[in-house]
Design a protein that fits this description.
The protein is of the alpha/beta class. It is built from nine helices and eight strands.
């Protein structure tokens, strides 16, 4: 499975006291290992990552196939488990990919430049100080995206919503008569949660990518929920012993790969009529 920064750092510095930051709430603890749990938000120890001077995310320009995005505030929780399952298929199929847990990055809210005037919202984004410009460039460079999302109040997480809001500058290219960067790319959507809201969450996410010109892979959405009548503390055991979440996740990732390999984007180039809001 994907090695976390925590696991890599522990192996390299087994006895060194370092600061550990909770990726959920930002609490910092100093020690040889992270605490057993966060005293502020009660997240387990695997949500801690080694704290270091922040460096802005950059993109080296190297082309790759698929972006795998974990949109949960809990980088190693149940949504992270679903992302792990997806990542295993990507490795097995030998496609090039990059995985991102959004809680590890700094993504500011959208400035809504479009509300001032349409031409003010353009690519590259005017906010160049956070990690989103690199994400923009990778969305343009990759062939497909797989979004893994939790269900929060019958919708996606706030982190993922802000990420998707920040793709407005790419969508708006079609409105200001500039060449688009995303039409014909492929999308797949994976959703998990404690209770209801899976279909709505998936559709909210899909609407964003549809407006960017993405093509949803056939059978490109999968979701799994546990149930409100269970205590949420039992969710992790349920998901990690559930055969359906494994089968459906693997199916969606396979379908994204197969659709991507048809080179639909290249075949549709110059033939699409952008229809966006």
């Amino acid at each position: 499975m994907h090695k976390t920064p925590l696991e890599i750092s522990l192996k390299a510095n087994p006895d060194q006291k370092i600061p550990w930051r909770c990726a959920v709430c930002g609490f910092v603890f100093t020690g040889e290992k992270p605490p057993k749990g966060c005293p502020v938000c009660h997240s387990p120890s695997y949500e801690f990552i080694p704290e270091k001077d922040r460096q802005q995310l950059t993109y080296n320009g190297e082309k790759f196939d698929i972006m795998l995005i974990n949109g949960s505030s809990h980088r190693a929780g149940n949504t992270g488990y679903m992302a792990d399952l997806a990542e295993a298929v990507l490795r097995e199929r030998g496609v090039s990919y990059r995985r991102f847990n959004l809680s590890e990055y700094v993504i500011d809210y959208c400035w809504c430049c479009y509300a001032v005037r349409a031409e003010s919202c353009a690519y590259p984004c005017r906010n160049k100080k956070d990690d989103m410009p690199a994400f923009h460039a990778m969305l343009a460079a990759s062939k497909a995206v797989i979004i893994v999302s939790p269900i929060n109040w019958n919708g996606m997480s706030a982190r993922l919503k802000v990420f998707l809001d920040r793709t407005t500058c790419m969508e708006n290219l079609f409105h200001i008569n500039k060449p688009g960067l995303t039409e014909g790319k492929v999308a797949g959507i994976l959703v998990q949660g404690h209770e209801d809201g899976a279909i709505k969450t998936a559709m909210d996410i899909w609407l964003n990518f549809q407006q960017l010109g993405y093509v949803l892979a056939p059978f490109g959405i999968a979701f799994r929920t546990h149930g409100s009548h269970f205590n949420s503390v039992t969710d992790r055991e349920f998901f990690q012993n559930d055969e359906l979440i494994v089968r459906h996740t693997r199916g969606v990732v396979n379908n994204v790969i197969e659709t991507m390999q048809l080179d639909i984007g290249e075949k549709l180039k110059g033939k699409l009529v952008p229809v966006t809001e």
